[in-house]
Every structure is written in C-alpha cells, then in structure tokens.
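PROTEIN DESIGN WORKSHEET
SECTION A - STRUCTURE
LENGTH: 256
TOKENS:
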C-alpha cells in the first residue's frame, strides 16, 4: 500500500520564532493522532532554509518530517545562494521539494535542472517531491498533459528504477497555486491518472507505490473531495499550511 503524504510548503514565510509557535500548535493538534496518521500517511513541513534549525528543534520527538524547499545538485562549491544535500541532512531533512512552479517560473529553473536536483536528492538518500504543472495558457491551449508529462520525464531522468520508491510527485496546476481557484477533483484526477500511467511505463510495478500529491489552493473545505479520487495520495499545501488548524485538518483528512 502506498503511503499518503501531506506536506506544508511555507515558502518565504515565518521567522524562526513564528515557525516554533506554528509548529507547537500543529503538534498540539496532530500529536494525539500520531498512531492513526502513521497507519497510512506521513506529514511534513518545509520551512525556508534559515528556519530549518528552529523547526528541527520544534519537531524533536514528533513523527512529523522536516522538508526543504529546494536543493542544489552539486556537493559544494561556487553556487552563491544555493544549499547542498549535506547541509540539509545535517538538520534532519528527509524530503526536498524540487521544480516548484515558483522556481520554474520566477527563477527560470529548466526541466533539465529540476531533473538534476531530483536525482541529487535521491542520491543523498532523501525523498524528492517533484512538482509538475501547467499554466493557465497551456491548459487553455489543450497542452496540459503534454506539459506535465514532459516535466515528469525530465524530472525523473536521472533517477534509477531501483530508487523509484523514494520519489513523490506533486501535480500543481500553476493557475491554482495561491489563487483560491483549485482544480476540481475531476480535473485533477485526469492528470493524476496520466501521471500514474507514465510512472508505470518508467518504473513498472514500483509506480503503484509512489504518492502523487495534488497542490494548488488546497483547503480544509476541498481536501476531502480531492482525496476521494483514486490516484490523489495527499497534498502539497501553501497558504493553508500557515495556519495550524487548517493544516492539521488537511493533514488528518479522512481521519479526524
Ligand atoms: P497554495 O500553494 O496552497 O497556496 O496554492 C501550493 C504550493 O505552491 O505548493
């Protein structure tokens, strides 16, 4: 059985002190549910890099995983503004978001670069959360699946088949991110099904063990209907992850 993943992407928000307070509140809501959550899912938070030490401390003794929002593919060197696998692992990071649409569109990360980052995360024994998704314009022109599958193929290019079970995919339509305009469960299900088929072509039976998350304006009000679809295995949550009650409610979808 594949495990679900409910992941908070805090983006460029929260100081260390604010993160500590938010994590205390999230833990107050989720720690009592730990045994139930562990049966079928993981819950993760991804703070900004300088907030990782405070978050790691605040998570001590909890079952919540610590994630990062990006990672460079080289081990070290002259890459101003980037961070390495060893730096992230030093704080207990287990998951790394790669290819988020804000990285692709605002910081011009190419499909190829995202693929290198994903492969480096796997090589460093962490889990990449590989984000894929089309813009509104691409959807309007009927290019949704072509774009998503191109990003998927390039993103997975450097990942050996025997490591497939280490990978998480997040389908995040760009037009749904931070807009309050979520994909309908039916729209998402079509793309998730196509991603699953492509994963089977690439990874054979292991494809059925990979979680495919949905991201883009996920809230406590829409999460249950999204999770009801067979190939939607959790969520990558931005805005709603900055409030303890809404993130806890999303992470406990189907349980509480
Ligand atoms: P959102 O962001 O939930 O605020 O739409 C999701 C994401 O960017 O991962």
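SECTION B - SEQUENCE
RESIDUE ASSIGNMENT:
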């Amino acid at each position: 059985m594949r495990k679900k993943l409910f992941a908070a992407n805090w983006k460029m928000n929260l100081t260390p002190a604010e993160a500590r307070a938010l994590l205390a509140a999230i833990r107050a809501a989720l720690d009592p549910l730990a045994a139930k959550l562990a049966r079928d899912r993981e819950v993760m938070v991804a703070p900004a890099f300088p907030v990782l030490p405070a978050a790691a401390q605040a998570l001590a003794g909890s079952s919540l995983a610590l994630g990062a929002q990006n990672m460079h593919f080289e081990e070290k060197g002259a890459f101003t503004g980037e961070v390495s696998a060893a730096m992230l692992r030093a704080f207990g990071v287990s998951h790394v978001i790669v290819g988020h649409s804000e990285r692709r569109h605002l910081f011009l990360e190419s499909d190829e670069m995202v693929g290198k980052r994903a492969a480096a995360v796997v090589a460093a024994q962490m889990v990449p959360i590989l984000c894929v998704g089309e813009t509104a314009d691409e959807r309007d022109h009927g290019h949704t699946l072509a774009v998503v599958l191109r990003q998927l193929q390039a993103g997975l290019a450097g990942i050996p088949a025997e490591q497939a079970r280490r990978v998480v995919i997040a389908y995040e339509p760009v037009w749904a991110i931070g807009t309050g305009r979520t994909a309908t469960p039916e729209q998402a299900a079509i793309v998730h099904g196509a991603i699953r088929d492509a994963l089977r072509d690439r990874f054979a039976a292991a494809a059925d063990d990979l979680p495919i998350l949905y991201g883009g304006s996920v809230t406590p009000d829409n999460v249950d209907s999204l999770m009801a679809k067979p190939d939607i295995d959790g969520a990558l949550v931005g805005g709603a992850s900055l409030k303890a009650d809404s993130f806890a409610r999303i992470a406990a979808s189907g349980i509480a």
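SECTION C - NOTES
Strands lie at 4-9, 41-46, 65-68, 95-98, 127-132, 168-171, 212-215, 234-237.
DSSP finds eleven helices and eight strands in the chain.
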